[in-house]
Design brief:
Length: about 325
């Protein structure tokens, strides 16, 4: 009996003495949520003393929360403006992670493969093209039977980096869009129905006949939604893929602060609606213990996590860019 009691007491002490996991909180972009979820899960196998709690609330929310310091890191697919950075209580770094594609997805009978050029996409989201049978769509899709059906535009209702990439692209191909709507994580949409997050837009398109919306490539594949080939600046209709996003990324001019755009790039094989996504991290961490763990995770993400990107339809950053980012991560103080 004494041995049993002693063993029980020893076990209780062992449980009591087990160290609690450190919780690192983040919030922001839905665009990279699939790859970030995988990274956070895999990293617990590397360091069991830390756990990540990431809220996929949209890039606008991620920017707001890191500015108010209610999270340990933010995430955004749109770079923060100079004005926003000036409001930060400390120097904020943009840490690019992976690149991905915004795709134009739709719900039509038979799920035909469609092609669009930029002006047509802009006209649809401006509300100027209202029917699927419109000549501007039909002329680019010979042999496809298009219904005489109203187009239901679906867009994001929350602050969104996916929206930033999409409206950045539309501003580059349509002077009317640029002057009337412009680019940003939130814009005043001329027409359409809002959905929260990539999840919300995917759901609205999937359940609404005649719908069209823009979502990150991984969400289209997960939801088995068709998406259009888009005409690039070289005049070629290009499908969104790891290779075509990598081709777009290869042309990007990446400044020292890592804030850059890669929409509508040159290159015969480049997909035109592509962008990178960033983690937003303070250069000087207030909590030394959390700061050290966050830096360790970021280094792991570049050395090991990038290898997982392709399996989830993201393009890893080129090796030379990874080296530059790792150097920047090494400058974070804690």
């Amino acid at each position: 009996m004494k041995k049993i009691l002693l063993a029980g007491l020893t076990g209780l002490l062992a449980v009591t003495a087990a160290p609690a996991q450190m919780l690192i909180n983040g919030a922001g972009a839905t665009f990279p949520y699939p790859i970030y979820s995988k990274w956070f899960n895999e990293y617990t196998k590397v360091d069991g003393s830390v756990r990540f709690n990431y809220q996929s609330i949209g890039s606008g929310g991620g920017q707001k929360q890191i500015l108010s310091e209610t999270v340990d890191f933010g995430a955004s697919d749109g770079p923060m403006s100079d004005d926003s950075l000036a409001k930060a209580p400390g120097k904020l770094l943009h840490i690019p992670t992976v690149a991905g594609a915004d795709v134009v997805s739709y719900n039509l009978p038979g799920s035909p493969k469609l092609r669009f050029d930029g002006p047509t996409v802009a006209a649809i989201f401006l509300g100027k093209i209202r029917k699927w049978s419109d000549p501007a769509i039909a002329s680019q899709n010979p042999g496809v039977t298009l219904p005489d059906q109203d187009i239901l535009v679906v867009h994001r209702s929350d602050g969104s980096g996916t929206t930033y990439i999409f409206t950045d692209y539309l501003s580059s191909v349509s002077p009317e869009w640029k002057s009337k709507v412009g680019k940003g994580t939130s814009v005043n949409w001329p027409v359409g129905l809002g959905g929260k997050g990539n999840e919300g837009v995917s759901g609205q398109v999937k359940q609404s006949p005649g719908a069209i919306g823009y979502i990150e490539l991984a969400y289209a594949k997960q939801n088995k939604l068709p998406y259009a080939d888009i005409k690039n600046s070289s005049g070629n209709y290009i499908a969104a893929s790891i290779d075509s996003v990598t081709a777009a990324l290869a042309t990007a001019e990446i400044p020292d602060d890592f804030r850059f755009s890669m929409v509508n790039p040159p290159g015969a094989d480049a997909y035109p609606i592509a962008g990178t996504t960033w983690l937003l991290v303070y250069a000087r961490q207030k909590d030394a213990a959390k700061g050290r763990k966050l830096v360790e995770f970021l280094k792991w993400a570049y050395q090991e996590g990038e290898k997982m990107a392709a399996s989830l339809d993201y393009a890893p950053l080129p090796a030379n860019v990874q080296a530059r980012v790792l150097q920047r991560i090494g400058e974070i103080k804690y």
